[in-house]
Design brief:
alpha+beta; five-stranded mixed beta sheet
């Protein structure tokens, strides 16, 4: 019986080593466990799952449009939909998750900075890893996320980057300017 178990363990070890040697892809999505003190690990997992869609396999993925309510809280989702109403390009002219219009293969490092049961703040460093993009396009970009828990599920309450410090504020101002001009 001991030989049988040892043989199985040896086989599993050989499979793991073989897989590591032939697997050509580096795992690009990492996350840092949230700080201790009752914080939810789900915030990091939520953002890691979001950025997993940017792995280069699904170039049609967009967290906007019909899918906005899966990722953004109800108010921000409504602002996003209103901004693109009528098929016009609104204040938001790209993807706020990658701060881009096109992407190849993104890697993301998620760090939960603060969290409690209903709110989390995270920093995400995103980098384009597709060599077809120029050096400027492959520079790391840092995003700040404010997440909110609604009925046990995380949603983006706001996201900011160096080009759009607050998506929520950008869309609120655009909506206000639009209603003032009518």
């Amino acid at each position: 019986m001991k030989r049988y178990i040892a043989a199985i363990a040896g086989g599993i070890a050989l499979l793991a080593i073989g897989a590591a040697l032939v697997w050509p892809y580096k795992i690009a999505y990492t996350f840092t466990l949230p700080p201790p003190g009752g914080s939810k690990p789900g915030a990091a997992a939520f953002l890691t799952n979001l950025y997993a869609h940017y792995d280069g396999k699904d170039q049609d993925f967009s967290p906007l449009g019909d899918h906005a309510s899966q990722w953004f809280d109800p108010e921000l989702s409504s602002l996003i939909k209103a901004d693109s109403a009528g098929g016009e390009v609104g204040a938001l002219d790209g993807d706020p998750i990658c701060d881009c219009q096109d992407y190849g293969r993104l890697s993301a490092q998620v760090t939960v900075v603060t969290a409690d049961d209903k709110h989390a703040r995270a920093s995400v460093v995103v980098m384009e890893t597709d060599p077809h993009f120029d050096a400027e396009g492959r520079k790391p970009r840092t995003f700040t996320y404010d997440l909110v828990d609604i009925d046990g599920r995380w949603y983006i309450h706001d996201v900011g980057s160096s080009t759009i410090p607050s998506l929520r504020q950008l869309l609120q101002q655009a909506r206000h300017a639009e209603s003032a001009s009518v």
